[in-house]
Amino acid sequence: MEVTVPANDAGLIKAVAGVLRSGGENATLVRQRLRPMLAAPKARTGKELIEFFRRSPLADVTLEIERDRSVGRVADFD
Predict the structure, then answer these.
(1) Three-state SS string across the chain, please?
(2) Domain assignments of the chain as residue spans, ordered by start
(3) How far apart are CA 30 and CA 19, in angstroms?
(4) Angle at CA 56, nearest 5°, toward 30 and 39?
(5) pTM of the predicted model as reported, rounded to 2 decimal places
(6) What are the tens digits of pLDDT across the range 39-71?
(7) CA distance 61 to 59
(8) Distance in angstroms (rounded) separating the CA atoms of residues 19 and 39
(9) Do 5 and 13 contact (CB within 8 A), yes or no?
């Protein structure tokens, strides 16, 4: 995996990756501490959900989605 960070954070990111890679108690602790800080907050209202979709990278993309109207295929379950 490759990430881009400021040069002064490179050592920190490498150290965190090393701890996570090694597993054990320290890895568990790092995960427990970092997850709440990094997780995106869940939308609690319709308004928040709409804002989430408006910030999506696909917000300005016109999607043309068509349903496959074929009858499918026969499946033999015996």
Answers:
(1) CCCCCCHHHHHHHHHHHHHHHHCHHHHHHHHHHHHHHHCCCCCCCHHHHHHHHHCCCCCCCCCCCCCCCCCCCCCCCC
(2) 7-54
(3) 8
(4) 15
(5) 0.48
(6) 777 777 888 888 888 888 888 888 888 888 888
(7) 6
(8) 20
(9) yes
